[in-house]
Design goal:
Its EC number is 6.2.1.44. The structure is a single chain. The protein is built from 17 helices and 27 strands. The protein is an alpha/beta fold. The longest helix has 17 residues, at 49-65. The protein is globular, with a radius of gyration of 24 Å.
Length: 544
C-alpha cells in the first residue's frame, strides 16, 4: 500500500529519520534563543534558554548518577515552579519517565502511585514534604529517594533533612549527553487519573504524541514566536497540557505561578506581558469577579484556552470586554489534555451575543494531532446523526491518544474497544461536525424518563446576577426517580433565595429541568478547578 515497486536503497537511516520527541525543542532553543528568557518566577528566577538547557542537563546527569536508568520512573510533587518545568525535560533527557503527581492528593493515594509507578526518585517541594514522607512511610515496596525542592521566595527554605535540588544541580555534569529515545513510542510520562472511583489509573504518554501535541496546539492557539505563557494549568495535570514542552519551539517564556489568584494573574499579565494561559472556567470566573484593587491595566489581548467544563455564556460575556479571547478546548488525561477546539469562523463575528456565546461553548472540532473525533453510539459503534439532537459518546482516534493504562491491560482493552478511545462523555454533533458536550455519562440526570443535562441547567443558573459558581447533580426522588439539585456559591455581597433561583430557572427551562432544591455553600473542587460532583451526589443521597 503506497510503496514504490522497487524501494531498494530507500530505507530509514540516521540521515533521514530520527524518533520524534519534544526534547528536540529545547536543544534547538539553546542555539536559536540562547539569551532570551525561558523561565521566569518572580524577580529571583529569570533564566535564559542557555541557562535553562544547562540546568536541565545537570538534572539529567545527576539523576543518572543516582542510578536512574532508561525506563525508570522519576516522580514530582511540585507546584508550577521552575524546577517542575526543568523536570519535564531533565527526566526524559536521562531516558527516564516523568510521573508528575497531584499535590492535593491524600497520603494513601500518593503512596499507591509511588508504588504502582515504581518511582526511583521523587522531587518534592518543601511545602509538600510532609505528604511525601507520610506516603513513603505507607509504601510496601522499595521507597524512592526524596530530593527537596526549596522555595525561599514563598518562605519555604530547605529543611536540611534531604538533599536539596540546587545542590543536586551544582553536582551535575554540564556536558552530559542527553539520552534521546531510540523509538518514538518510548514512554515520556506517566499521569494518574483523578481516581474518584477506585484506584487511579496510570495513563502512559509516548514521545511521538507529546511532540505532535506541541505542534498541534501551536496551530490551534494561533501562536507566533516569543509568546509569554502563564502556568495556570497544573504541571501535574496532563503535563500542563504539554505547554511546557511546547514553549521552546517558539522561543517562548514560561511564567511560573505558585498560587493561582486573580491578583497574581493580573500581575503576570501587566508585569510580565503574559499573552497566553489555559485554565478551567473557574479561573475565568475569578478574573471576572476580581476585586477592583486586584485588577491591573494591560493593552493587549490575552488568548485563553479553557477546559474542564463548557464555559457558561454569562462568564464569556463578562470576560471578553476585559481583554481576554477565550477558546474552549476539550480533552482528557488520556488525550494529553486538549484534543478538540472550538475553532472560530469569521461568519460568526456578526451574530448577537447570545448566539456567539452559545457557539463558543461548543466543544468544537478535532485539533491537528488527532485523526478523528466524533460522536458515536457506544453499543453499535456507529456514527450518530449530526442533527444537533441525537446523543452519543465522544470518541477519539489518532496520535494524540495515550499508549494505554500502566499495568492494566483490561482497562486499556475496554477503553479502546472498537478501535476508538471511549471518553465516557455524552454530546450531540452539529451538521458542521462541531460537538457540544451534554454531560459525563454519569452526570446525566434521568427525571421521569427524561434526560436532563446538568451542563444545560448550570448554564442558565450562571446567568443569574447573584451566582458566582454552581453545580447541578441528581437527587434521588420517590416520584421521578431523580430530580435536579443545584449547589450555588453566591458572589461576594450578593443575596438570593432558593425560591428566587428556582423561579429564574423555570422562566428559561422546561419544568422537568428546573432544580427542585437549591443549596448554598462552597463547592468542593479539584486542584485544577473542576467541581467534584461526586462529593455533591454523596451529600444529596445521604451517603456522604
Amino acid at each position: 500500500m503506497g510503496w514504490l515497486k522497487d524501494e531498494t536503497g530507500l530505507e530509514k537511516n540516521s540521515a533521514n529519520y530520527t524518533p520524534l520527541t519534544p526534547l528536540t525543542h529545547l536543544n534547538r532553543a539553546k542555539d536559536l534563543f540562547p539569551h532570551e528568557l525561558a523561565v521566569v518566577y518572580g524577580s529571583q528566577h529569570r533564566k535564559t534558554y542557555a541557562e535553562y538547557h544547562d540546568r536541565v542537563t545537570r538534572l539529567a546527569s545527576e539523576l543518572a548518577n543516582m542510578g536512574v536508568k532508561p525506563g525508570d520512573v522519576v516522580a514530582t510533587i511540585i507546584p508550577n515552579l521552575p524546577a517542575h518545568a526543568e523536570a519535564h525535560f531533565g527526566v526524559p533527557a536521562c531516558g527516564a519517565i516523568l510521573n508528575a503527581i497531584n499535590t492535593r492528593l491524600d497520603v494513601g493515594t500518593v503512596a499507591y502511585i509511588l508504588g504502582h509507578g515504581e518511582a526511583k526518585v521523587v522531587l518534592v517541594d518543601t511545602g509538600h514534604l510532609a505528604l511525601a514522607k507520610d506516603a513513603v512511610a505507607q509504601m510496601d515496596g522499595p521507597a524512592p529517594t526524596i530530593i527537596e525542592v526549596a522555595d525561599p521566595s514563598a518562605g519555604l527554605d530547605a529543611t536540611g533533612e534531604f538533599r536539596e535540588y540546587e545542590d543536586l544541580l551544582a553536582s551535575g555534569d554540564p556536558d552530559f549527553q542527553w539520552i534521546m529515545p531510540q523509538d518514538e513510542w518510548e514512554s515520556i510520562a506517566l499521569n494518574y487519573t483523578s481516581g474518584t472511583t477506585g484506584r487511579p489509573k496510570g495513563v502512559v504518554y509516548h514521545h511521538r504524541g507529546a511532540l505532535l501535541n506541541t505542534y498541534g496546539q501551536t496551530v490551534s492557539w494561533r501562536m507566533t514566536l516569543r509568546p509569554r505563557y502563564l502556568t495556570i494549568v497544573p504541571l501535574f495535570h496532563c503535563n500542563g497540557w504539554c505547554h511546557t514542552w511546547m514553549m521552546p519551539l517558539l522561543g517562548g517564556t514560561v511564567v511560573c505561578c505558585r498560587d493561582i489568584t486573580a491578583r497574581n494573574i493580573y500581575d503576570a499579565i501587566a508585569d510580565e506581558g503574559v499573552t497566553h494561559f489555559g485554565g478551567a472556567p473557574i479561573v475565568l470566573n475569578s478574573i471576572v469577579n476580581a476585586r477592583d484593587e486586584d485588577r491591573r491595566a494591560f493593552d493587549h489581548i490575552v488568548e485563553v484556552f479553557t477546559a474542564g467544563a463548557p464555559p457558561p455564556a454569562a462568564t464569556l460575556r463578562a470576560i471578553e470586554p476585559l481583554g481576554f479571547n477565550v477558546t474552549q478546548v476539550y480533552g482528557l488525561t488520556e488525550t494529553y489534555g486538549p484534543a478538540t477546539e472550538c475553532m472560530w469562523k469569521p461568519e460568526w463575528d456578526g451574530l448577537e451575543d447570545e448566539q456567539r456565546y452559545e457557539i463558543k461553548a461548543r466543544t468544537g472540532v478535532l485539533m491537528p494531532m488527532i485523526d478523528e473525533n466524533t460522536v458515536m453510539d457506544p453499543e453499535s459503534m456507529k456514527q450518530v446523526p449530526m442533527d444537533s439532537q441525537t446523543q452519543g459518546e465522544i470518541m477519539y482516534r489518532g496520535n494524540g491518544v495515550m499508549k494505554g493504562y500502566f499495568k492494566n491491560p483490561e482497562a486499556t482493552t475496554e477503553a479502546f474497544r472498537g478501535g476508538y478511545f471511549h471518553t465516557g462523555d455524552l454530546a450531540v454533533q452539529h451538521p458542521d461536525t462541531y460537538m457540544k458536550i451534554l454531560d459525563r455519562s454519569k452526570d446525566i440526570i434521568i427525571s421521569g424518563g427524561e434526560n436532563v443535562s446538568s451542563v444545560e441547567v448550570e448554564g442558565v443558573l450562571m446567568m443569574h446576577p447573584a451566582v458566582s459558581l454552581c453545580a447541578v447533580v441528581a437527587k434521588p426522588d420517590e416520584k421521578w426517580g431523580e430530580v435536579p439539585c443545584a449547589f450555588i456559591e453566591l458572589k461576594d455581597g450578593a443575596e438570593a433565595t432558593a425560591e428566587e433561583i428556582i423561579a429564574f430557572t423555570r422562566s428559561k427551562l422546561a419544568g422537568f429541568k428546573t432544580p427542585k432544591q437549591v443549596i448554598f455553600h462552597e463547592l468542593p473542587k479539584t486542584s485544577t478547578g473542576k467541581i467534584q460532583k461526586f462529593e455533591l451526589r454523596k451529600e444529596v443521597s445521604g451517603s456522604g
